[in-house]
Amino acid sequence: MTSTDEHHALALDLGSSSVRAVLGSYRQGAISTEEVFRLHHQAVDDHGTLTWDLERIMDGARRSIVEATERLGRAPDSIGIDTWGVDYGLLDAQGELLRAPRAYRDGRMARWATDLDRAISPEAAWRATGILPQQINTVYQLYADLRQEPDLVDRVDRFLPLPDLVAHLLGAPVEAGRAIASTTGLASPGARHWASQVLEATGIPERWMPPLVDDATVAGMTPEGITIVRPGGHDTACAVHALGLRGHEVRLFISSGSWSLIGAAVPSPILDGAALRAGLTNEVRTDGGIRLLRNLTGFWLLQECQRSWNEPDTGALVEAAGECASLGVVIDPDDELFASPGDMPDKIADWCRLHYKVAPEGPAQTVRLILESLACAHAAYAQGLQDVVGDQLDPAAPIHLVGGGARNSLLPAMTAAACHRRVVVGTPEASALGNILAQLEAADVLDPSARGEVLRRSISSVEVDSSGAIADPGAFDAMRERLDNATAD
């Protein structure tokens, strides 16, 4: 049963390019949402180091609270913060931030990654944490920080993941939610405690690590008296929370944004050899279950192309892509060539010429190529997840797609065709909605068992079949085969 109480929850959904605030109003068993604030921000070059403009981010967070208060005529009942993963802040003994948080696309980790892998092998680190070692991970970042600045050992009092840092600066104590902590590569599988084996091997002081706490719980209060909730911290944890799954349900999902995260919601960590070979990572869900997933480059490719073209109208580009012919080939979105900003259309064209001796002609065909490439990557990773999860996952069950890709008319159809599965297209606002749901649960306004019922009352979803005029499954099978052959060497 759902509560009849009215509750107004403010979700601060912080992305790598914007501060967004979504006000969720819960009445009569349903949630209505309204974006009340948005502020652009970006990583900045600080003398050769890529950092986040935290002052601008915090200004946006505080202005969001003011705007929500003006809309309501009173302060919201609660606030929750979700962000991207792996980035963090370092506090001194007085609780002051030592420097601006560094961005995961900063290049410093490459210099020290081999040393870290010698200190603790990637396989040992994976088994100790359940997290696939990648250079953007927090553990690689902190290791690089300590190698560059050994005096940080004495200067730092506490490390805080980014959403917990923002919550702290708004009034919460120095603690870390388990879901965001699980993404760092520094916590045990399920994030019940910090991984002492990893900390010892890398020289990261255990005293830096804040207490770990459950998500969907009250964290503290703002100076205005607004309850701060830890909603899961990571935007994907919040998005999966908005699927409305029960703890025992196993489902495939794609959270589509700048990154595409494709995974299976499972009850507990999967740490066998097959999961490791498949490159899977075990991140904690808001409800304490596990997101067994792969992280791949997503709409970053399109966003960078739009920046080069100076074309902000995504809808027009997608419409044109749907009307143009397919090039019949796809790229590997995770190729290192595409990881850095700048000249993305040229990079994509060069990659195609190198591997296929053809290249897309103009923006429309480039956008179609990007979408087809993402769909093929989704298919490859979905098959890998099915192989690892096995009988827990019904092979006929649909994939749930949420996030920015839910706004895209082509990507769900292409993904369904490439995966040979139905795709259930949910809300583009999944991260904010999951954040709001966690706040309602923390406030005892909503029983977690009623989450699915509230979602059905609050949002609509569309099911896309695996066959259609825009996306032919056979064509995607052929493109995947051509990609495999082109990259075999």
Task: Characterise the protein shown here.
- This is Carbohydrate kinase.
- One of its GO terms (biological process) is rhamnose catabolic process.
- Belongs to the FGGY kinase family.
- Keywords: ATP-binding, Carbohydrate metabolism, Kinase, Nucleotide-binding, Rhamnose metabolism, Transferase, Xylose metabolism.
- This protein has about 500 residues and is of the alpha/beta class.
- Helix 9 crosses helix 16, helix 14 crosses helix 15 and helix 15 (about 410-420) packs across helix 18 (about 475-485).
- It folds into two domains: about 5-230, ATPase, nucleotide binding domain (Nucleotidyltransferase, domain 5, 2-Layer Sandwich), CATH 3.30.420; about 245-425 and about 460-489, Nucleotidyltransferase, domain 5.
- It starts with 6 loop residues before the first strand and ends with a helix.
- Strand 15 (about 280-285) and strand 16 form a beta hairpin.
- It has helices at about 55-70, 110-120, 120-130, 140-150, 150-155, 160-170, 180, 195-200, 235-240, 275, 300-310, 315-325, 345-355, 360-390, 410-420, 430-440, 450-460, 475-485, and strands at about 5-15, 20-25, 30-40, 45, 50, 80, 90, 160, 175, 210-215, 215-220, 225-230, 250-255, 260-265, 280-285, 290-295, 400-405, 425, 460-465.
- A seven-stranded mixed sheet has the order 15-16-14-13-17-18-19, sandwiched between helices. A six-stranded mixed sheet has the order 3-2-1-6-12-11. A two-stranded antiparallel ribbon has the order 4-5.
